[in-house]
Design a protein that fits this description.
The chain is an alpha/beta fold. It is built from ten helices and 13 strands.
């Protein structure tokens, strides 16, 4: 029979050759892929290399019995749940309690009836599907809890927590850490002129442009509040930070935001700071870096907007305006 892709691969732990051969035959007839081990210790080594979704183990085996195997698998505490089916000749209530307390999910009495085995495996797959659905739902809830619902950027809570982690890592490994604060210029005018729905579209597109300017899965972006955003650049020195900030400024200033009403010309002002653990022995905090970046950003606003001001040089980089910026 052709193996169905949806059927999980099963790990068998059985020392008796006849019992193992019959079990393999039953699984093969129903299309289940499987790997067989002759004792619990060998099965555990297989499991460490490839965590199986379902394990069928005999109770009495040399070197490591079924209950010890169940405990060992549970102690590995992987990211995915494993259904443990214990096969045994012992049918007393006390024996069943002992097996379940060892971590088994279900048990089946030997000699195994193939129809009963398939029913047990269908139940195992149903439980695994429910566990997967629950895990995905929890991951989705967690993702929603750390994301800004409008722009998809990380939210303020994530920023406050994970910026401290980035600072600690920078001091631990003596690597630079840069931070950029960005504020859209005259954003209130956009809302007043075109409405808040258009303003939301502008914010969403700006986040797309900002994300396109940084390293994927290394740098990260958070919405600080309103039209302000913070970009965190791990292992980035001052010159690298300037390059990124200027690239962001250009991406926003030279890409009119297409809306349902018009192509709106916008710009943004940037403040950039860099933490250098080797030359700054005082352990800085997240609020300290944010406040320093905010000062630089305010200087960019004061000097005409559509600018990058870097704390290291306190000077303007490329671009800029003559102070008559209309957006």
């Amino acid at each position: 029979m052709t193996t169905e892709p949806s059927l999980p691969c099963i790990l068998i732990a059985e020392d008796d050759l006849l019992s193992r051969t019959l079990l393999e035959l039953y699984l093969q007839q129903e299309g289940y892929p499987f790997v067989s081990a002759v004792n619990g210790r060998e099965a555990l080594e297989y499991f460490k290399r490839t965590p199986f979704q379902i394990v069928i183990t005999d109770w009495l085996m040399p070197e490591m019995d079924g209950t010890d195997l169940c405990r060992s698998i549970r102690n590995l505490a992987g990211n995915h749940y494993t259904f443990l089916l214990l096969q045994t000749c012992q049918d007393s209530p006390e024996a069943m309690v002992e097996g379940l307390e060892a971590g088994a999910d279900d048990y089946i009495i030997k000699p195994i009836n193939p129809a009963e085995l398939m029913v047990r495996l269908k139940g195992a797959r149903r439980i695994l599907d429910l566990e997967k659905s629950l895990r995905e739902s929890l991951a989705e809830l967690r993702e929603h809890s750390i994301r800004d619902p409008l722009t998809g950027a990380y939210n303020r809570g994530y920023l406050n927590q994970h910026l401290e982690h980035e600072i600690q890592r920078a001091y631990r490994y003596r690597h630079p850490l840069s931070l950029i604060m960005c504020d859209l210029d005259h954003f209130k005018l956009i809302n007043d002129t075109y409405g808040h729905q258009v303003g939301d579209q502008v914010l969403q597109q700006c986040v797309v442009n900002l994300k396109a300017s940084v390293r994927h899965n290394i740098d990260w972006l958070a919405r600080y509040g309103g039209e302000e955003f913070v970009i965190v650049l791990p292992e980035t020195n001052a010159s690298g930070c300037q390059v990124v900030a200027e690239r962001m400024r250009s991406m926003i200033a030279f890409c009119p935001e297409e809306t349902a009403n018009d192509a709106i010309k916008i710009s943004a002002s940037f403040g950039a700071v860099t933490l250098l653990p080797d030359s700054d022995p005082i352990h800085r905090s997240g609020p300290d870096l944010l406040q320093r970046a905010d000062v630089c950003m305010y200087q960019a606003k004061q000097r005409g907007r559509n600018l990058v001001v870097c704390e290291e040089q306190h000077a303007l980089l490329h671009g800029g305006s003559d102070g008559t910026d209309q957006h």
